[in-house]
TrEMBL record:
The modification N6-(pyridoxal phosphate)lysine is found at K218. It catalyses: L-valine + 2-oxoglutarate = 3-methyl-2-oxobutanoate + L-glutamate; L-isoleucine + 2-oxoglutarate = (S)-3-methyl-2-oxopentanoate + L-glutamate; L-leucine + 2-oxoglutarate = 4-methyl-2-oxopentanoate + L-glutamate. One of its GO terms (molecular function) is branched-chain-amino-acid transaminase activity. The keyword Cell inner membrane does not apply. Keywords: Amino-acid biosynthesis, Aminotransferase, Branched-chain amino acid biosynthesis, Pyridoxal phosphate, Transferase. It comes from Blepharisma stoltei. Belongs to the class-IV pyridoxal-phosphate-dependent aminotransferase family. Coiled coil: none annotated. Its cofactor is pyridoxal 5'-phosphate. GO terms for biological process: amino acid biosynthetic process; branched-chain amino acid biosynthetic process. This is Branched-chain-amino-acid aminotransferase.
Length: 382
């Protein structure tokens, strides 16, 4: 009795802030109107077909986290002065759920996405939460949506956790209200008919991220300007931008970037830019570094390299292959780099990719679809 009175009192005094939401408290409202599963073929458009349910949990500065909800997929109703619409208080994650040949649903290293979401939220002064509780919410949500995880290799259910500031005030201040939600959408193989290598355009005048900025966080504001830049270069026949910072190669489009080359000393080296404020710490990037280090067949380096070193290596025939890396495609072969009025052709041993690119794709796919048992697989099923 007294404890109830006390807890009521302290709630109204705002002292008992809920510092996290809890997976055990999720309120679930199943849909009565399930959507139909689309045909799983190359007509499926990336992330267009959303699933039956939506997960969300609200936060405000007085109460802290509210009760998490899973309900039929629905529009969000937000005040037009919500800070996400005006000051870019939005961050997100991208991950996938895969079905194995034995009908198990797997996630791939989800704890890394959870950690990254917490970091992105902190960069925007959005509230923190318990990572393990969020992972358990995600697991419950994916379990409820398991019929949407396609049982066809290469296809998966894309998961988009998102956090927004919903503070209703036009002042530029720390959001006093926020919403964390998750939507799921069906995705097919990025390359349904085999690899489609991309041509890159490199222009020192266009910048994605800068030292001391938030290029290492998945915040929405990093991506809008890139869309307009990319639109311009697609008209010139290129697909992605190769981003530089002070002449150093950083990322490609919205992927991390790798080059396999022979150094001037004749050593074979797989190289990618080191993690700093200009590089997004990709789960795929980390997986590629870990796997290739385990293989131990060539030197694996995270170090700074310049566009001049790269084009010089192409000219001297030292580049073996190059590729982008990210959850959507896993790896994406690069066939060409445009720099200062000149196209540099990147070799592709297999015609549409290099040997390492193909090997990494096959290996990571077989972990994701449970063909290889690996500690990176996280089983959703209870
Ligand atoms: C998401 C993203 C990546 C890839 O990260 P993954 O975790 O491998 O999907 C790389 N670069 C940028 C800029 C990104 O937004």
């Amino acid at each position: 009795m007294w404890s109830r009175v006390y807890s009521k009192l302290s709630n109204t005094c705002g002292r008992r802030l809920n510092s996290t939401f809890r997976a055990s408290e999720i309120v679930i409202d199943h849909t009565n109107n399930p959507k139909t599963m689309p045909v799983l073929d190359e007509t499926l458009i990336f992330g267009k077909k959303t699933t039956d349910h939506l997960f969300w949990v609200d936060w405000d500065a007085k109460k802290g986290w509210h009760t998490p909800q899973i309900a039929p997929y629905q529009p969000l109703v937000l005040d037009p002065t919500s800070s996400c619409f005006h000051y870019g208080t939005e961050c997100f994650e991208g991950m996938k759920a895969y079905k194995t040949a034995h009908d198990k649903v797997l996630l791939f290293r989800p704890e890394m996405n959870v950690r990254r979401l917490k970091k992105s939220a902190a960069a925007l002064a959005l509230p923190d939460f318990d990572g393990e509780e969020f992972l358990q919410c995600l697991r419950k949500f994916v379990d409820i949506e398991r019929k949407w995880v396609p049982n066809k290799k290469g296809y998966s259910m894309y998961i988009r956790p998102t956090m927004i500031g919903t503070h209703q005030q036009l002042g530029v201040t720390k959001p006093a209200k926020a919403k964390l939600f998750i939507v799921n959408a069906l995705v097919g193989p990025y390359f349904p008919t085999g690899f489609k290598p991309v041509a890159l355009y490199c222009d020192e005048a266009r910048v994605r991220a800068w030292p001391g900025g938030v290029g290492d966080k998945k915040v929405g504001g990093n991506y809008g300007p890139g869309i307009a830049y990319t639109d311009e270069i697609t008209k010139l026949g290129y697909q992605q931008l190769l981003w530089l910072v002070n002449g150093n190669v950083t990322e490609v489009g919205t992927m991390n970037f790798f080059v396999l080359w022979k150094t001037k000393e004749g050593e074979t080296e797989l190289i990618t830019a080191p993690l700093d404020s200009t590089i997004l710490e990709g789960v795929t990037r980390d997986s590629i570094l870990t796997l290739t280090k385990e293989w131990g067949e060539f030197k694996v380096s995270e170090r700074t390299f310049s566009i001049h070193e790269l084009v010089e290596a192409v000219d001297q025939g030292r580049v073996i292959e190059a590729f982008g890396a990210g959850t959507a495609c896993i790896v994406c072969p690069v066939k060409k780099i445009h720099f200062k009025g000149k196209d540099y052709d990147i070799p592709m041993k297999l015609g549409n990719s290099g040997l390492l690119t193909k090997r990494l794709l096959d290996h990571i796919l077989s972990i994701q679809y449970g063909e290889i048992h690996h500690p990176w697989s996280y089983q959703v099923d209870y």
